[in-house]
Structures are given as structure tokens and as C-alpha cells.
Backbone:
């Protein structure tokens, strides 16, 4: 119970990373803030080590994100903090791209937990969704990089700590609606096919009689 509670707290702290950085730099130097964030990253990795096979992006995202934070640790500046979201997006893109080239995709792995026997049309749809998410990671990473290099700290915090999550939730919601539509479409096609088969069998039987 305590382990789950600590894991949730660590997850929330890292989820609110941009705001933690924005507020933290008002009270401590980049060096000490970087140390705290690195401890949080490593702690989360240790707490979730048992499920890393189900979350293949966790290790590369932690490694690349940690590398960005280490930059701030040694330079005593905020640039590494600002590049953290970019590195996480790059890690997600790399994992999704690799799984697309070397199936099963990340999304397929999760989908098979609910339905081990996915039909062919579902696998085709999942690969398309994987490409969509890959495109999203590229766009999101590009905007994040722009805010890190050319925008104020407030704009960087607002985009990476709020807007980016809104975009992720919106894309997930849109994909869910499209998925329901695709499932209904193929369900109706299968029902029509079954009806046609029954009618054909009935007509054949009647002719034989």
C-alpha cells in the first residue's frame, strides 16, 4: 500500500514537472533543483522496475530526461530543465517507431491484454494509430523545443505543463471515438456477411428440395 502511494506521489510530481521547475527556481539554484529532480526520476524508476516490460518507454524516457536535467546540474542553468519535455517526447517517438518497425507495436501490446485474438482489421487500425501518435510526438517535441529556446519561462511552463496535456487528452479522446466507429462498422459488416451466408444456404437448400 505504501509503495503504491509513494509511486503515485512520484508520478504526480513528475507530471507537474514544468510547474515544479518554474516554482523551484524561485527558491533554490538550478544545481540543487536538478539534484532533487534526479532523485525523483531514479526513485520512480526503482519503484516501477517490476512493470518496465509493460511500459517500454519508461527507461529511455528516464535516461534521456535525466540527461537533460544533468545538463542543468553541471551548468547551473535552466536550459536542461527546459529540454526535459523534448527528451521525453523523443524517447516516446523512438519507442513507438521501433515497435512499428519491429511489431508488435506498443498499442498492440496493450490491446492484446483485453483481446488476445485481435482480428486483422484491428491490427491494421492499430498500426495507423501508432503512426498518428508518432506524428504527434514529432509536433509536440518541435513546439516544446521552440518554447525552450525562444519563449519566456512562463510560456514554456504553460505549454509543457498544461497545453501539451490537453492536446494528448484530446487526441486520445478523438482516437477513442474513431475506434468505436471502426468497431461498429466492422461489426455491421460481419453481421451482414452472416445474414448473406444464411440466406445463401437457405436458397441452396430450397433449390435442392
Residues:
Amino acid at each position: 500500500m505504501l509503495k503504491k502511494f509513494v509511486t503515485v506521489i512520484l508520478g504526480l510530481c513528475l507530471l507537474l514537472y514544468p510547474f515544479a521547475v518554474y516554482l523551484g527556481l524561485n527558491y533554490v539554484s538550478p544545481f540543487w533543483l536538478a539534484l532533487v529532480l534526479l532523485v525523483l526520476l531514479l526513485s520512480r524508476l526503482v519503484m516501477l522496475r517490476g512493470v518496465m516490460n509493460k511500459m517500454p518507454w519508461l527507461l529511455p524516457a528516464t535516461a534521456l530526461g535525466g540527461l537533460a536535467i544533468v545538463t542543468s546540474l553541471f551548468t547551473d542553468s535552466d536550459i536542461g530543465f527546459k529540454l526535459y519535455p523534448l527528451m521525453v517526447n523523443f524517447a516516446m517517438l523512438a519507442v513507438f517507431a521501433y515497435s512499428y518497425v519491429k511489431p508488435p507495436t506498443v498499442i498492440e501490446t496493450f490491446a492484446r491484454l483485453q483481446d488476445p485474438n485481435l482480428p486483422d482489421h484491428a491490427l491494421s487500425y492499430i498500426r495507423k494509430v501508432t503512426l498518428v501518435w508518432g506524428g504527434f510526438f514529432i509536433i509536440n517535441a518541435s513546439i516544446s523545443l521552440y518554447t525552450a529556446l525562444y519563449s519566456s519561462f512562463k510560456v514554456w511552463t504553460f505549454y509543457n505543463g498544461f497545453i501539451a496535456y490537453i492536446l494528448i487528452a484530446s487526441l486520445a479522446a478523438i482516437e477513442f471515438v474513431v475506434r468505436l466507429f471502426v468497431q461498429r462498422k466492422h461489426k455491421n459488416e460481419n453481421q451482414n456477411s452472416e445474414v448473406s451466408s444464411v440466406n445463401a444456404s437457405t436458397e441452396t437448400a430450397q433449390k435442392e428440395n
User: Anything to note?
Assistant: The two ends are 70 Å apart (CA to CA). Residues 153-208 form the longest helix (56 residues).
